[in-house]
Amino acid sequence: MESIYNYTIEMLKQYFLDQGEKPFRSSQIIEWLYRHQIDTLDEMTNIKKAIVEQMKQDFYLPRLECVTRQVSSDGTQKFLFRLEDGNLIETVLMHHEYGYSVCVTTEVGCNMNCQFCASGMKKKLRNLETSEIILQILTISKLTGLRISHVVVMGIGEPFDNYENVIRFLKIINYPLGLEIGARHITVSTCGLVDKIYAYADFDLQVNLAISLHAPNNRIRNQLMPINKAYPIEQLIDSIRYYIEKTNRRVTIEYILIKGINDSLECADELASLLHGLNVYVNLIPYNEVSSKPYERSAKESMVAFFDWLKKRKINVQLRKEQGSDIDAACGQLRSKHI
Fold first, then answer.
1. Is 84 one of the annotated active-site residues of the chain?
2. Which of 110, 117, 267, 331 is catalytic?
3. Which residues are within 8 A (CB) of 229 and not within 5 positions of it... i.e. 6 or more apart?
């Protein structure tokens, strides 16, 4: 049997056609799964019993076990979930003025080995299935009773290293009769898998793109992010330019400020020159320190000076407000404590 949460509306339509049933059943199933968030297939009261019995032979509804739930004073919640195979993943719920967003994980571990990141401390064991990504949203919704309106794909793992499952996940959560999360309320972040950025630009949903840049040049980025040795900044910028031209959408540039590494005014000036003329939005992020890493957060005055310099150079920029700083804030820290 297979998890039914792996199935898009198109896949369910084909399933019912193969069963000699009308394809409209697929929309009914999606509504039961995501609007009503059923626990068993038997709860689908408007589906013929024979169809339900057949589906019970082919599908099952998996669950995530909540191992730990941390709640910050600002309302941010971090969940540690156990998968069916015993592996652990992290998911974060954040409260904003515009609603509630969930940051989902896409892999068990990560192979990108970004030097400042807690996620990469444990090597990738496997990709998450589409259903395992979806269940992070469904489980948090059930545990909290909240309507999730926004999703960021920025948890443990590199989303574009699990490209097909992530794309299927995006289609499912966007479907109108399902979770109905608007495409423009979804953001996928990548550390710079250039070939997948080109593919993503051709994707037919208007889902947002964020780039984890964190350096203004190849020298610093090579030091912080090994992926840059495969896809140098010049190639990355070319792919961003292609994405913008193809989609006419703005790209978010994520830039973690690390003391003495990438937070000087020289770095700010170089970053402004690198991004000049591109429809981008720079998100400056205070570094969440990791005890086993040698990096430190930039001083407040350095962060403000960096921000001011980018503004002076006419770069659209914000200094991100911290959330969850009084719990295991850095992605991967909570999981690392339990493995």
1. no
2. 331
3. 222
